[in-house]
Amino acid sequence: MAIERTLSIIKPDATRRNLTGKIAAKFEEAGLRIVASKRIHLSPAQAGKFYEVHKDRPFYGELVEFMASEPVVVQVLEGENAIAKNREVMGATNPANADEGTIRKEFALSMGENSVHGSDAADTAKEEIAFFFSGLELVG
Ligand code: DAT
Ligand code: MG
């Protein structure tokens, strides 16, 4: 299995409830290394651009407003099979369907306020990492 990098976002519902450390611990316990991390407050334009792929979905406006509502913590996670492993640790998009022990099962408030984002494939991981970080900021 290849060593991969993936982009994670700890969303406003989680930063607001002081869950940043608990969520980061889940990544580390799963063997994912946090090779870059920063707390930022996205503008609506930045959040809209990041989630552009969903622009025609009915929830887009709500999603963008939520992601720009309060700070987020963006991180790059590195490890074997990191993209799929992070998706496993996150749990299903809808917390009602998330497995026990996953971040979304434990912490998510709803389908929209679901605590974390994670890249879904190698190409999106690359794009999403470049959206937030320069090469110099990635410290393996
Ligand atoms: P994921 O975040 O699991 O990759 P996604 O890419 O399908 O899920 O959607 C991006 C985010 O949009 C998701 O984390 C929460 C929000 N979202 C998705 N479907 C939604 C819905 N039906 N109602 C409200 N928000 C939704
Ligand atoms: Mg997605």
TrEMBL record:
Cofactor(s) of this protein: Mg(2+)
Matches recorded under CDD domains: NDPk_I
Active-site residues annotated for this sequence: H117 (pros-phosphohistidine intermediate)
Catalysed transformations (reactions): a 2'-deoxyribonucleoside 5'-diphosphate + ATP = a 2'-deoxyribonucleoside 5'-triphosphate + ADP; a ribonucleoside 5'-diphosphate + ATP = a ribonucleoside 5'-triphosphate + ADP
Cell compartments where the protein resides: Cytoplasm
UniProt superkingdom: Bacteria
Keywords: ATP-binding, Cytoplasm, Kinase, Magnesium, Metal-binding, Nucleotide metabolism, Nucleotide-binding, Phosphoprotein, Transferase
Gene3D superfamilies associated with the record: Nucleoside diphosphate kinase-like domain
Protein name from the UniProt record: Nucleoside diphosphate kinase
Organism: Paracoccus haeundaensis
